[in-house]
Amino acid sequence: MLSAKGRAMPGELIVGNFPKYAARKLYDTDLTQVQAIERATMPTGCALSRKEMKSVFETPRVYGFAVDHLGRAIERNVAGFALCAQSKGDVCLLRFAVLPEDRRNRVGELLIREVKFRAILDNAERIVTIVPESCLDAQLFLRRMGFWAVKIDKTCYQGIDQDAIEFEFIVAEGGT
User: Fold this and answer.
1) pLDDT tens digits, one per residue of 6-41
2) Which of 42, 63, 81, 99 could in theory staple to 46 by disulfide, Cβ–Cβ 3.0 to 4.6 A?
3) Which residues are bridge partners to 25 per DSSP?
4) Helix or strand or coil: residue 93?
5) What is the number of alpha carbons within 13 Å of residue 148 lying toward its C-beta?
6) Residue 78 — φ and ψ, nearest 5°?
7) Is residue 1 part of a domain?
8) 6 within some domain
9) Is this prediction's pTM over 0.90?
10) What are the DSSP calls for 17-75, one per residue?
11) Domain containing 100: what range?
């Protein structure tokens, strides 16, 4: 939806003259699409099962965002998602994925913008996340969004022979 002046409304991304994507709250009815996105984008062994995803989603202080592709059929319109948890002044970005065909359309940027805006509303000091060392595209994307690699965790991914890299974004320094 465009504003009266033809600009994007908050949470929308304009491609050409029309809104192509819109951000919204992530609902438990989106879990099937979220799982499909995870299977298409996560390294082998990193995607959560439906049961694991449902238990994370039902945890207190966990919330999420989805970005809908406005031109797609209703049964498959989620282009990307972010799942976050609030704890002790931090927002932890638990899960984050965008369909490969939508990555070049700035869907990830729209999701991170929503996460940053929510962090500001919640008076969070920083946003933290971990990324497997093999996910170079995710690492580069987070760097482009203003995140800094702060630590290597060698115990995070047990059962997978790789380290995790912790990234953080200081909310007061970066804004949205």
Assistant:
1) 444 555 554 444 458 888 888 888 888 888 888 888
2) 42
3) 65
4) strand
5) 7
6) -80, 120
7) no
8) no
9) no
10) TEEEEEEEE--GGGHHHHHHHHHHHSPTTTSPPHHHHHHHHTSTTEEEEEEEETTS-GG
11) 12-174
